[in-house]
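Exercise 3.2. Students should predict the tertiary structure of the chain below and write it as structure tokens, then compare their answer with the key that follows.

Predict this chain's 3D structure.
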Amino acid sequence: MRDERGYGKGEGTEAGKGTEKAKASSESLKQDVIIIGAGFGGLSCAIRLATAGLRVTVLERQEHVGGKLQQIEQGGYHFDRGPSTITMPDAFRSVFDHAGAVMENYVQLYELEPRTRNIFADGTVVDLSRNRGWMKEQIAAYSPQDASRYDAFMDESAALYAEANRHFLGKLLLNPSDKYNLQMLRSLLRVRPTVKLDKLLRRYFNHPHTLAMFGRYATYVGSSPYLSPSIFAMMGHVEAEVGIYGVKGGTYQLIEGMTRLAQEKGVRIQTDIEVHQIVVRQGKVAGVDTDQGFMEAEQVVANGDVLSVNRLLLAPEHRKRMSDSRIAKYEPSISGFVTLAGVRRHYDQLLHHTVFFPEQYEPEFDHIFRDRTMPADPTIYICYSGYSEASMAPAGASNLFILVNAPYLSEAWNWEEQQSRYGEFVLEHLEARGISGLKQSDVLIRYTPQHIERDTLAHQGSIYGISSNSVKQTFMRPGNQSQDVQGLWYVGGTTHPGGGTPIVTLSGQLVGEQLAAELGK
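Answer key:
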């Protein structure tokens, strides 16, 4: 069976059971908080609010909860379409801890060691590991000089992570005094915001393999290592020493576990319901208009792209500080072109996470951010969760999530014309790297930036909201509280503290905590 459709509202999945289909608004009373969007940020915020005793309803336009993370099951193959690399497990654990629940009763994580396999164009392989000695041995095989600097780099990476944790990740920056104070200034100076990630890496490393391996961390926030600030070098410590984790049963089980906890706390979750407008009266939120009628609420939390929420759900007179002209000035993050392949063979080259690097790394980002076209020689990431759990695919088969970085949507690249051609190109590229037989897959599903925009309303199909290719877009993202509308809040990748699954989850917790305090619960 061969299927090249891009999935729409949850097609082909069984996930999200237990949530309510949309019902007429007359059945619901005024809520303390309505949350638009049931992604990681929305669900974590809902749990925090409901734990504090607030009445919370979550509205999700897709058929199933999860936002960009959806579950696909077809022909005995299980795929997670969306985030696959899970780091910073404490960000998820805090959701359960604050609700008085034991995370392992809802979802189980397991540590991956080695973390990720990096395969370079000349055949060199480096398996990222917590073991610094082994890492230095692998790097020394092609660059003894780089190996000698690995410890120093990892120490700086850990220091950057500690600084980010202390001053940026764990607090809301709602007021000017939160952002512009002596302590924050000192912290910014310590992380050297004007130094690009690639420039910091070159203080330690010279070889293209090492620079690409650690430069790739900029893509975790949808950005370029040649443009984004050096703070993202902290991901070296996060991945190697804090760890990369798999999720038993697939990454979507994180969403399933959070959904179950939310419902146990009394959160009402409605799926397949479209919000048409955030209703504002005298400068304050009054509720939301949906395709099922008006729903009243004291506060509204938007778990979605801040730019899309303002452009699509707020009348222009209610968003003067987020006008169309201002929205156009933000640079969206990278998007992604995904192929889900269910194939009747195993591949010895692959671990749970494997990255195939091109001969030269920098041109990929020129294509994406300068030309807004697909890379001519792309980096290809494969998540093969069946490596860790054989039940994710039929016996003797592999379930492969294949991702290539893509530009955000523009007139420079037409996915209607290019989807099939570029999809074949990716499979041929992998064939040349030893991953053969993909064109004969039992299941072959492609998912483009157009599908991302259609399903999640992500601005221009971006995955992480806005890019972090500048100091301003990294450290001064749109705030979590609307500057135009009283009672409107934002969680997700575009707002503070930034993109990436654990960070988005953290944003939901921070906003939930603040709202619970303001509402006196």
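Discussion points: Confidence is low (pLDDT under 50) at residues 1-17, 24-28. The longest strand covers residues 293-303.
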